[in-house]
Please model this.
Amino acid sequence: MLNEALLAIGPVPIAAGILLLLVAAVYTHRFSSSKSATAGKLKLDPETLQIPQTISPKIPYIGHVLGFVEDGHSYFSSLCARTSLPVFTIRMAKVKLSIVKPELARHLPKVRHFSLSPLVQQLFGRPLALGEFSRSLLKEEDEMSRKFGPEVSRLFREEFIPNKNLRKYVEEIDGYVLREVGAMKSGQKIFLEDWIFKTLVGALGKSLWGGDNGPFSDPEFYNIIKNLDTFLMNMKRLNAPFNFMIDEKLLTARRFVRERLEAFSFEEYAEKCARGSTDAIKETFLGRVRELCITYGAATGGWTDYQLLLIAGLGPNVMAASTWMFHHLADPELLTQVRSELDEFVKQSEGSIDVANMSEACPLVLATWYEVLRTHGGFSLGRYVHEDTTLAGKYLLKKGSYTLAPLRPHHQDRQIWGAAADQFLPGRFLKEDGSLDELQRKLRVYGVFGTLCPGRYLAVHMAMALTVRLLLAFDMTPLNGSHKPPSENKDTIAGLATPALDVEVVMRRLENAPEGLEISFKSNRQEF
Ligand code: HEM
Model:
């Protein structure tokens, strides 16, 4: 087992091995397509297939591990830049990784026998303290458990893609955001990332998990959301092989969150809900996730595990992207332009804005959002190879290895983004006439393996609602000097890098802040 192998090789490789695995486990718990779960073995002709060439590290054996510990995801991108090979293999301790460069990425959706669940089990099992049942479900050792991942994915798509659901979520989430913004006093000091985590993850959690009747509405749970933050941002430390190696604060936070989720009684929740009928409750997202878990044999503990996996996968990305938004919008010139776009939009909409119209009404805000995703979307997406398979009809990917697609080479490709690909340019996604262009289709932050994040529409709309609410109501002044975007945290293990440090700002309410601004999502379009 990987964990045991890592245990045998000492602390630095352990840390890096864990990091490596977390890099590869990106939010999903499924096969890349339902076909791959049932397809028979491929007929592979070793004569015509190449095993991707191995690139050796400068320091034998541990060089790649150290490179990753030092540079995080950028290490994989720098390896890509060093070679002309379109795909190559590296070894990190006992783990074999095939790294795929952008030129072959279009073939990834067609590769069979990719899987994430067994990997997720290896990675998240220890840090989230998953129970035996959940681990065995994620290992996908039998036909039944192999159906679980695709079923869950289907449920996500059905829940987050249709416009009528989006409408409901955007309005609910905005309601929670509005409450937080409304509660902020003029002159209050906040740590930006901390506040955004609390607001967005709290709002998303409440909206998905039972609203005011669910676990996220428990005041104690809500207060300790900061601990949830600490806990989720320290998964790597929680993966240490023995508890005595882990900071007690992290263990306490994890225990607290787990106990709160476990104490939540679905039956009581069903009774508390206005409609009260168990059938109606079963139709809710919470009810359907639970139903699915139970169908696959999960006990209450298993259901808690799955909720934790969902929280760990859903919240941090949108939180990180929104935090970067405010760091970049602190640029005075950009802020003035963006505020004037927003003011005009509110005026034209007579105080009731539809966030779905923002791409036309506020192209610079959207362009800044895309530039945030491009600039900070330098993470890697990965899959576990559970049978020998082929890439582009030419390369052999061996059973038991991992395939990794670093996104930085996509997002900094000069042929797509031009000579200034390494700079943050808020207007990059605008045409000459100031309207939004189609360049955002070249972004890869939502997936490269053929499946795309089902929460992508919700993510942009919740980020827009937060941006509108905060920018129109408050001025932010950093306590320590000028507000420059911090560097990226190299320890971010999955998804958008978080800022390396949190910035403390003083919030001053604007005198001309619009009163009673309504935010909705009415349109039938989904174009972001
Ligand atoms: C800027 C914000 C976000 C980014 C960059 C992002 C990115 C991703 C990526 C790269 C994946 C993996 C896709 C794959 O390899 O198949 C994913 C999966 C997923 N995301 Fe997001 N995500 C974001 C926000 C959200 C939000 C707000 C939600 C909440 C609804 C969400 C829900 C999900 C779910 C449920 C999956 C798993 C899908 C499956 O199992 O098929 N995401 N996301």
